[in-house]
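Running this now, will post back.
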Amino acid sequence: MHSNDRKIDLTGFWEFRLDPENRGIKEKWYQESFNEKIWLPGSTDEAGYGVKPLKNQIHIGRLTREYSYEGAAWYSVEIEVDDTWLGKDAILYLERCHWETRVWIDGESLGCMNSLSGPHVYLINGGISVGKHRITICVDNTKKLNLGFWPHSVCEETQTNWNGMIGRMELICLGNLFLKDVQVYPCLNTKTITVKGIIRNSSDSPLDCRIQIKLSPANDLMEIVMEKEEDLLSVKGEQAFEVNVPITANMKPWDEFDPNLYIANLFVQGSGNGNILNCRTDVTFGIRKVSTFDRQLLINDRPVFLRGALHNAESPLTGYPSVKVEDWEFVIRKVKEYGLNHFRFHSWCPPEAAFTAADRLGFYFLPECPFSADIYRDYPEAKYLEQEAFHMLKTYGNHPSFVMMGFGNEMRKDEDFFDALLNNMREADNRRIYTCDVNNDRFAKRMSPLYNAQFFVTRHTQYGSIRLAQQKRFKSMYSVDGNDLDYTAEIRNIHMPVILHEAGEWAVHPDFSEISKYTGHLKPYNLEHFRSILKKRGLLPQVHQFQLASGALSRILYKEELEACFRTPGMAGFQLLNIQDFPGQGDALVGLLD
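Update: finished.
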């Protein structure tokens, strides 16, 4: 792999070796080459590395991995750098890793990262010398932290605990002057856009810098709707900057109906000691405001009713989420056809491509940290939760689709820690609203929101259930017809938006015709098992009738569930489980789509 301008694309075949006994670091495998090959981006499952299940290990409560592996795996590749990189800072950018990575270049360690929610980015101070070099990465998907029961970031029920690296994999030459951590904060109240970031000057001399910011519509970069310049004197090392740019009358806000996007083009030129250096970057953003008023969620000061569904990282073809914008656009367009306007990402955060697609199509996201666990502030998991939360803000914070955020699914225990973290998040970034968790602790029955939460996702309050299946009309001794059901009494005295957690879960009979669609390495042995049972009992000819009958009942129940929300004054929305089937937890065939 050779340098091309200021970037080396690391896509391709890498040398590879499994390390199930975890001997590699002790035996200094980072100084070695390996005999086996693997294609990256990708996973060990896709490449056929790992253990095949025995017949008695086939799962009937979820899909089964054709190959599975948990432990350290080593990846190595040779690159070549030309003289344009000499003496300039560089980064190794790995978009999505699962889970922990350790990196060496020519046997020298660059450190370790373990984010499940965002990229692993390694800074190479002083750059890389001219010539050939070897990059070695150890990826370890061992569960070293307790993320809880069925977190969809790592559990086998959905995307699986895969080992590998996906998305962009690049070695990037930054130069001696570059911009980092650029964040754009639009404020409709003051008609101002605040652009914040850091300028890094790693040259030998301080630089007097001038920063120029140009704003253009994303669909017409030739049109400059606003331009601003400011001077930054004597920049050495890293220096923060903040520039305020006015919002002009012809700039349009972003929402689900009009997803107007803009590009902020930043250009910095620095001079000092006879040197002139420059750098630039582009940031896509939307002008929008997320706020609440009593039980209403507001986008740009207009009430919004959230009609959502869960996205559980279901990826039956690959076992990991897509990093392609077109794939996410297909999914979002499909759910919008069914009248939905947002996704809740259950105990995981989607990749950049998902946010980009949602920005373009006008769709609201509620990503979560990778948890479904009991946490106390002195647990190592508490530090990891905080680390992941702020990494998500830094990585995806400019996306207008990122309107809400949670810490995970059904979190429990240290409410003072959660409340303090909520406060810190709100102070750090006011571009979205925050909550601790969803379903708000169904086991310990936290039936009211935390003090610093800004919305409440639940299926029960201190006044009763707001879920259809738990209403009296679904008890065997009591049945009521009609359209009178609502949750006015149940949400009284809650003065923030209330969203129904995991609405529905009404099952439909398995559709065995979809078995042929499972062409990846996650196998539908569960569906094959169910089909064999029906065959033995002579019921296969009636399968289509079972589907139609159960589907019709499911549709009626979903309709009743949602209409109860619609007719409740002040209800902020619902999150369906689900519009499509859920592949795990005992085969939750709860969707009208496959």
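Residues 473-479 have pLDDT under 50 and may be disordered. More later if anyone needs it.
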